[in-house]
Amino acid sequence: MNTHPVRAALVAVALATVSGAALAHPGHEGASFFSGFAHPFGGVDHLLAMLAVGLYAARQPGATRWMLPAGFVLAMLAGAGLGALGFALPAVEAGIAASVLVLGLLIALAARLPVAASLPLVAAFALFHGHAHHAEMEGASLATYALGFALATALLHGAGYALTRWTPQTLLGDRVHRAAGAAIAGTGALLLGA
User: Fold this and answer.
1) Which chain regions cross the lipid bilayer (predicted)?
2) Pick from 106, 146, 110: which is nearest to 129 by CA?
3) pLDDT of residue 23
4) 25 in a domain, yes or no?
5) CA-to-CA distance for 5 and 159, rounded, in angstroms?
6) Which stretch of DSSP H or E encloses residue 86?
7) Where in the sequence is the domain holding 68, given as residue range(s)?
């Protein structure tokens, strides 16, 4: 199997996680894009949920594989738009933590929900993530900030997808995939309890 996409996704994730220090100084051109790009990497809740979407989507049939990540990104942008318009979502942090728990459980249980159920579920969680991204914007341009976090999210989805597709389709590979889901779900449960 060609591992170049896996390697590229992992390098992108690693570079993005260290970009925050370089952007901490004022005067950078496009700082709103880069602050938006860095935001999903700045919290374990966003990071795990976005990886989980890719991990989950990779084991789904047909078009669902791309519909779930694309739906998440679009709904996340809608959540940021709601925040920009002044609409408050209730319990945003709990919604984000629940997304980590539920997505982890779907992976751990190797669930295959119909797209009519999985897409609205993923989109609902994405609204919370987008709303939280907007709340952290701190005066940046919404368009460039949103472009940054949308791109970072897509890369995290791609990293989760690539890792899953790279994992051998064996009993051991399935156990590793499920264990990763269980660890994600456990983190979500801890976040909900915090």
Assistant:
1) 40-58, 70-89, 95-128, 140-163
2) 146
3) 36
4) no
5) 9
6) none
7) 4-15+30-193
What's the total number of domains in the chain?
A: 1
Show the tokens assigned to 18.
Answer: 């260290």
- Is 130 among the domain residues? yes
H helical segments located in the chain: 4-17, 19-22, 31-38, 44-57, 64-84, 92-108, 115-135, 142-166, 171-193
- Both ends of the chain: CA-CA distance in Å? 41
Measured between alpha carbons, how far is 185 from 98 in angstroms, rounded to an integer?
A: 9
Contact between 107 and 180 under an 8 Å Cβ cutoff? The reply is yes
Structure confidence by residue, pLDDT tens digits, 113-143: 999 999 999 999 999 999 999 998 877 788 9
pLDDT tens across 65-100, in order?
999 999 999 999 999 999 999 999 999 999 999 999
Max Cα separation, the chain?
52
pTM across the whole model: 0.82
In a domain, 35, yes or no: yes
Whether the Cβ atoms of residue 102 and residue 188 lie closer than 8 Å to each other: yes
Distance CA 14, CA 29 (A): 22
Contacts of 180 (CB under 8 A, 6+ apart): 55, 107
